[in-house]
Amino acid sequence: MASFGALGRALSHREARIFFGASLTAWTGLWMHRIAVTWLAWELTRSPFWVGMVAFCDLAPAVVFSPIAGAVADRMDRVRLTMIAQAVIAVQALGVALLTMTGLISIGPLLFFEVIGGIAASFAQPARQALMPGLVPRADLPAAVACNSLCFNVARFLGPAIAGPMIAAFGVVPAILCNVAAYLAACLTMPLLRPEAEHVRGHAPEASLLAEMLEGIRYAATHPGIGPIFLFAGTTAILLRGVQEILPPYVERLFGQGAPGLALLTAAIGVGALVAGLWVASRGKLAGATRLAVAGIAAQAVFTAGFVATGWFPFAVACAAAFGACASIHGISVQTLAQSAALTKMRGRTLSLWGLITRACPALGALVLGTVGEAFGMRLPTLCAVGLTLMVALWGATRIRAWAKHLETI
Questions:
Q1: Whose CA, among 1, 174, 315, 356, lies 20 to 30 Å from 180?
Q2: pLDDT digits (tens, 9 = 90+) for 130-139
Q3: Backbone angles phi, psi at 46, to 5 degrees
């Protein structure tokens, strides 16, 4: 276990254990909810477009609200903001469950509630992430960021593993209600945290909310390391991440599988991400993270091509696990670099832009894939996206050394 010393140091702190325990609980509920609502959308419409639209409505509000949320997180009590946002997510999920239970659900109300959840998540993400440096010593921050992503990927395994059989046996409502309970539980643990005071609130308001929001965008865009790595991550997220957001059409049309197959694929992605996350967490250092961020995308593109090129489901599951691992390596590396490089007073706004990338860009990719998939099937558009991703990865490979100079410092 010596190789996991960095991860152990991050978890040796009481505040970190509470924080990550709540994160694991909430995200397990989130993944159960995602599996449930994407399958619900597929059952309601049998349309890749509408499945993509559900993912879009959940993730796309980040485009509008993430920059605002980052500015709010840099001037408001981050613990309180996280609690409010988590409570709204629980209420939103409860609304979906009640409509489904009463038989009143249709694609329109489902889209509405997913927008509400997406807005709340846009506020929760920068508030939570900006708290992290106040929970562990700075030397343990890379391991803590990796542990945070690790929790997300453990949940990405646990959520589908629980939700798949549950949906097959009882329908989507119990899985959605589990998300309600998970977010309420996470919300109630937040007052137990005692982060360092300087990280609870970034700074007293210095200008209007709009001005501070624009300042945050300008800071990230002009930073010689953060700006380029965010551009790289956002472009490749549009091209590749949409696949993971609209799995039901792939599951049924390419492989002839149902809800258990969907759960198995999603769980495989989570297992791959978990294994890779453990490895990245065990490194506990910034050196080499830029190279990992770029290489992870190139490898993810290759395994995504393997996933859609085959008609043999076991091979597709193996490819799903592999591209989940690569996506985890990329995501952990970029977040660690951004969190370490950003100034303390700008951290909430910087991480809100990372939240925008991780939520809005996959949403756009999902919508495009779903729309084009209606006309051309799921295989050809995905392979075209893979080709474009490899071209972007080649560009990124030529810039690794320049980006690392501004990102890999403590």
A1: 356
A2: 888 788 887 7
A3: 55, 35
